[in-house]
Amino acid sequence: MKRKVLLIYTGGTIGMEKDYETGSLRAFDFGNIFQKIPEMKLIECEISVYPFKKPLDSSDMGPTEWKMIAKHIGKNYDHYDGFLILHGTDTMSYSASALSFMLKNLKKPVILTGSQLPIGDLRTDAKENLLTSLYYASLYENNEAVIQEVAVYFEYKLLRGNRTLKYSAEFFDAYQTPNYPILGQSGVHLNVMKDNLWRSKTNGKFEVDTHVSQDVLFWRIFPGMHLNHFTEIPKVKVLVLQVFGSGTIFNTEKTLQTLQALRDQGTEIVVISQCVSGGISFGKYSNSNIFTKIGAISGNDITAESAITKAMHLLNNPKYEGGFAENFVKNICGEVSE
Ligand code: ASP
Description:
This protein is α/β, with parallel strands linked by helices. It folds into two domains: 3-208, 3-Layer(aba) Sandwich (Rossmann fold); 216-328, Rossmann fold (3-Layer(aba) Sandwich). Helix content is 23%, strand content 24%. The chain has helices at residues 33-36, 63-76, 92-102, 126-137, 228-231, 253-264, 289-294, 304-314, 324-328, and strands at residues 3-11, 16-18, 25-27, 45-56, 82-86, 103-104, 110-113, 140-141, 144-145, 150-154, 157-160, 165-166, 175-176, 184-186, 190-192, 207-208, 216-220, 238-243, 268-273, 297-298. The strands form six sheets. It has an eight-stranded mixed beta sheet with strand order 4-1-5-7-10-11-14-15, with helices on both faces. Helix 7 links the parallel strand 19 and strand 20 (297-298). Helix 3 runs parallel beside helix 8. Bound molecules: aspartic acid (ASP). Residues 11-13, 57-58, 88-90, 114, 116 line the site of aspartic acid.
């Protein structure tokens, strides 16, 4: 039986080709993808293409597009065995994280991929990324999808989407999940590390929840920063604060007062680390005690991309019982270690 994959094309470098006369990049008509990559026809699955009307650079993508994609997957969930999203690389980790929270109790693969060089380039990485992603998006065993989560496939590696970060603007190997092992690797064989795959603990039905609140701000501290800037933060519901190492900040009375004032105005403070690997551990150094005192939330080893999109999804979301902090510390879909 041929598996059915829905390919959603959003834009990015992957859908571009070089105009050899002018030397510049231009988006090509994605309806012609089968002519561009005839090998796609050789893959043992049936592919339908849903291109965005106007291909976007991923820096122009955000909640509107996440919702659109999530709803489109929801509408087509029963008709396809897997979903492949072609996406610009710059914000792919944000979209992958946001989608992982929106697509609840996923039992089918949702794979995102893109490329560093356009599909029409002689040295392109687009072909391999696209073809192998199709394999992963249609991989079934005993009538059950092998991948049941939102994943990113890039340069021979399959990664948990909400653990990824774009680590290189230069190398083909652009993504990493420093706090989670890889889900699969493509070599001569297509390998899957089954122990690393996400399996929902609840037996709930697949559901799309596109709730997003944009009352979230991200701030990175640095030595010598003026704390007065914190008092200039507009009233925001969630501040994701990226601090040093395992959760340290300037140990001054002024810091305590400033952050306490934010808490008093009702701002939730989520603390994450500037290190890409490892995470927050309140209490390890006395310079983290301020966070315990003001009741800040530890983001543990979550990425910035995931912390931001998780906060956006949870804030004022009527589908979640309990408070923001209580829900934020939970591992919803593999985004954080337990
Ligand atoms: N600027 C592009 C984008 O993110 C980069 C890429 O696709 O690689 O849409």
